[in-house]
Structure formats: C-alpha cells, structure tokens
Amino acid sequence: MLSLDTLRILCTSRASLHHSWLMTKRQFVYQTVTCAAHCMSTSFPKKDTWHSNMDLNALGKDIKRIYSTYPASSIRKYCTGQVKLNCWNCKQPLDTTPAFFCMSCKVIQPPEEDASYFKIMDCDVTFTLDTQKLQKRYLQLQRSLHPDNFSQRPVKEQEYSESHSALVNKAYQTLLKPLSRGLYMLELEGVRTDEGTDSGADSGFLMQLMEINEALDEARTPEDANKIGQDTKGKLAVLTEAIDAALLEGELQAAKALLAQMKYYANIEEKVKEKLSEFM
Predict the structure, then answer these.
(1) Distance, CA of 185 to CA of 203 (rounded, Å)
(2) Looking at the domain that runs over 84-176, which CATH code has it been given?
(3) What residues does the J domain cover (predicted)?
C-alpha cells in the first residue's frame, strides 16, 4: 500500500500538471481569439478605403466634411504577413516597398509593376493630393533613377533604370492633373470608363457647354476670354470638391459622372488658353 505522504506527493504533482495544461490551453485560446478580433477590427472598411459622414447636397453649395482615413487592409496582411522581397544582387531583404535601391549593396532594383502610382510617388490616396509634394518627389526620383546615371553600369541595371524612369514619369503625369487622377482612383476601385469619362451627359448640360463654346468663339478681347476662363475655373473648383466628397463617401458612380463634367470644363479651359494666345 502507498503511504499517506506518497499519496500527497502524487496528488500535488497531478494538480500541478493539470494547472499547467489548463493555463497553456487558456493562453492558446486567448491568442487565437485576439488574432481573430484584430483581423476583424482592421479588415473590413465600409464600401471603400475611406470612411466619411458627409452631406453632399448639390454642386455649388458648401460641402462640410468630417472624415477619417484608414488604409486598405486584409486578413492576409494582418495574420499571415506580407511576402518580403530580397535584393537580386546581394540577396538581403528589401526594407521598403516599392524598393528602388537595396539599402545593403545600394544596387538598383527591378520596378514593381503592380505598385500603385500613389505608393510610387509617396502620396496619400486622395483626390485633393498635394501637387507640390508630388512634384518634389518626382524630381527626387528622376535625379536618382535617370538612365544617364547608369550608363557605365551593367546592362541589367541600365534596363531597370529605364523601366523605373518611365514608370515614375507615367505615375507623375497621371496624378498631376485632377481628371486623370480621379479616373485612376476609379480604376483602382475596379470602375473603368470608356474613352475617358463620357457618362451620358444630359441635354441641358450639353446645351450650357455649347453656349460657353460659342461665347468663347465670339470673344473679341482678352478680357472676354479671361472672364470665361475665370468662370470655368470656378466650376472646376466646385467639381473638385464634389468629386472628392463622392470618393470619400464611396459613391464611385457619382464620382464617375462628375469626372465626365470635369472633362468638358477642362477642355474649355484649354480652349481659353488657345484663345488668349491669339491675342498675343
């Protein structure tokens, strides 16, 4: 028979093992629930990558906005992590994405063709982006990536330089003007437009455009042309506010229709410039 002391030792050991097993199980459950909760709380934005409580009544009226911006996220990103790229030359991990140069060996890297123009140009994904910051970034990248800097480097690096330079130029030209920027933002959301922005403008709007074009053709002085130009700039400013509001609210079809109007007024703005050049 087992002595009383032996039984006490066995019971104590068993209780200790059960407690350790229970704590381990609780820790596992806690970690699992925590990961799931984190993924759910960060992975499902409303409609869009933007959140907003905005009241947009009509063009020409004040647009009051209170919104917060969240980056697009996914369960894959938060739970499994992103695949890290390595330098093609020294095989060291690349610290940033898109990576133009390896921080370890300083060698130029191949361009990431699927990187968004906003990421390439280090800009916020917003319709009203800072164009001065965009231009500064463009000049900085072209100074470091221009093919002239790689004329004495191996052929592979020369090719990477040419590809980077072309991609940066395309990103800059796309994001610089509001119209192409807005169309690109719609494209990122899966909304495409045929032949620019035509969305079936109504007859009243087209009639208004016809009258503006006729007035511009009949302008006989720089002052007359300038007046039309200033009115057009005002309409473009109102459209910019409305498009920004629609994109923030996730109303992509509304943004598409407004961009169609912006295209027409942008064309008039160019015609005003041509008309003014005739007076010089």
Answers:
(1) 28
(2) 1.10.287.110
(3) 116-188
